[in-house]
Write a structure and sequence with these properties.
The complex is a heterodimer. Chain A is built from eight helices and no strands. Chain A is mainly alpha-helical. Chain A has a single domain, classed as Orthogonal Bundle (MetI-like fold), CATH 1.10.3720.10. The radius of gyration of chain A is 21 Å and the shape is flat. In chain A, 37% of the residues are buried. Chain B has two domains: 135 residues, D-Maltodextrin-Binding Protein, domain 2; 94 residues, Periplasmic binding protein-like II (D-Maltodextrin-Binding Protein, domain 2, 3-Layer(aba) Sandwich). In chain B, the strands form three sheets. Chain B has a five-stranded mixed beta sheet, with helices on both faces. Classes of the chains: A mainly alpha, B alpha/beta.
Chain lengths: 217, 262
């Protein structure tokens, strides 16, 4: 058993870049999939609605841990080996897509029906109607739950350890397993997560107030 | 872990149905490739840890490097965790596992083991005030074990519902749980426990009895016959010429225990 050294702290602090990278790309992928799912889910076409519902059910109804496991090891079984990094991004992106899609579906449907009807009356087609009328209003509603989900996702990136992805939590575990100083190490890890997540929450509040200002009279 | 094992099985079937992966790996392939991917643990001092330079180190890692030097290939160490060892092996992400993997008939259904190259002593630890000298004394107590390990299976099988088993994700949590009084006793790796509780004399914790001696084998896929033969030869040879013993002395300050063979 060895003692904690400065290098250990560096190792843990630098492992945060993997947490950040994974969170960033997963948000990007999840956002793109989420928009598609939200639009399909609210479309008037029955087939695309059911497709979106099926996707959401699949990813909300199975544990994220097993989704990662299936992407990583399953791809290999099919003869397309993906690296741990790419599998983690893909797994988190697919999962986030389902949750964000459902959040945004709710936000789109929360925009008063009168708005859609008015836009129709003005002769706006689906594209401009969504982009110019519905989505800007839905955005305001979507911010708090979206940020809530993203904060949660940043923290759940630690699940990627199952496929050999060493991020913040796993790095902390590795050092703890060598030095047995859980309170110092996991205290530090928790503090780093806080530093990551708190600004997200702050930014969300600011954005909310700014967007809300537009609706004040 | 049952779920993960089930999934690994399901994936395996999927793989067989989808596309048969490359034919069984031979020792010649590894030698001509010039590298070998060896899965190790870094969670279990002194078998595998991250050293003060945050690199994998320990008895298992030294054995892995010795394998590389005898094969004349570069060793690529892949850090595994206890639950993902078999999936990494079965999906060809590693060629071999040198990770304190206890030899059991259950595991031998899905992987193949070399003759033992190390052994782990499974010991019951508890506070000094408690009288525990044999397995039956654990009845009615809360006993901590790392999930899915040999001691987990042994306790569940022999004592069944007479003992309340708390399963933890890894070894440090198990040691810590006893120190914090969350469990009455734990079944854990003897040497690591000795080190840990020597560091924490306030817990007043001591060894109670040896649960079992678990021999560990180098692990490979069931079709890697030529590699299996080579590993057996490697263990036999390095045991006889004292190299394994020297590594054991380096990490455990004790001679290599008498390892049964098969």
């Amino acid at each position: 058993m060895r003692t904690l050294n400065l290098g250990d702290f560096e190792y843990i602090v630098f492992a945060v870049r993997w947490t950040l990278l994974l969170s960033f790309y997963a948000t990007l992928a999840g956002g793109l999939i989420g928009i598609a799912i939200a639009l399909l889910r609210t479309s008037s076409n029955r087939a695309s609605r059911y497709l979106a519902i099926g996707y959401i059910r699949l990813f909300q109804g199975t544990p994220l841990l097993l989704q990662l496991f299936l992407v990583f090891f399953g791809a290999d079984m099919l003869g397309i080996p993906l690296g741990a990094e790419f599998s983690a991004i893909l797994g988190f992106g697919l999962n986030a897509g389902a949750f964000l899609g459902e959040i945004w579906r709710g936000s789109i449907q929360a925009v008063p029906a009168g708005q859609v009807e008015a836009a129709r009356a003005l002769g706006l087609h689906y594209g401009p109607r969504m982009i110019r009328v519905v989505l800007p209003q839905a955005l305001r509603i979507a911010i708090p739950p979206t940020v809530g989900f993203l904060v949660n996702m940043v923290k759940s990136t630690s699940l990627a350890a199952i496929i050999g992805f060493v991020e913040l939590t796993r790095a902390g575990q590795q050092i703890n397993n060598a030095t047995f100083r859980p309170f110092v190490i996991f205290g530090l890890v928790a503090a780093i997560y806080f530093v990551l997540c708190w600004p997200l929450t702050l930014a969300s509040r600011r954005l909310e107030t700014r967007l809300a200002a537009a609706y004040k009279r | 872990m049952k779920l993960i094992r089930f999934l690994a099985g399901a994936l395996l079937l999927l793989g067989i149905a989808a596309r048969q992966p490359a034919s069984a790996q031979t020792i010649d392939e590894i030698v001509s490739r010039g590298t070998i991917n060896i899965g190790v643990l870094v969670d279990l001092p002194p078998y595998g840890i991250l050293n003060d330079k945050q690199e994998p180190d320990g008895y298992d890692i030294d054995v892995a490097k010795l394998i590389g030097s005898y094969l004349g290939v570069k060793v690529n160490l892949v850090q595994l965790t206890s639950p993902n060892r078999i999936p990494f092996l079965l999906t060809n992400k590693v060629d071999l596992i040198v990770a304190t993997f206890g030899i059991t008939p259950e595991r031998a259904k899905s992987v193949m083991f070399s003759i033992p190259y190390s052994a782990i002593e499974n010991v019951v630890f508890a506070p000094k005030g408690k009288t525990i000298t044999k397995l039956e004394d654990l009845k009615g107590l809360r006993v901590g074990v790392p999930r899915g390990t040999v001691q987990d299976v042994l306790l569940s099988k022999s004592l069944g519902s007479a003992v309340k088993i708390s399963r933890f994700d890894d070894d440090p949590s198990t040691y810590q749980a006893l120190l914090a009084g969350q469990v009455d006793a734990i079944a854990e790796t003897g040497l690591t426990g000795d080190l840990f509780y020597a560091q924490h004399p306030e817990g007043d914790i001591e060894r109670k009895f040896i649960l079992l001696q678990q021999p560990n084998g180098i692990t490979m896929r069931k079709d890697q016959w030529s590699l299996h033969q080579w590993c057996d030869t490697f263990v036999y040879f390095t045991k006889n010429d004292g190299e394994l013993d020297a590594l054991y002395q380096k990490w455990f300050k004790k001679p290599l225990p008498n390892l049964p063979t098969f």
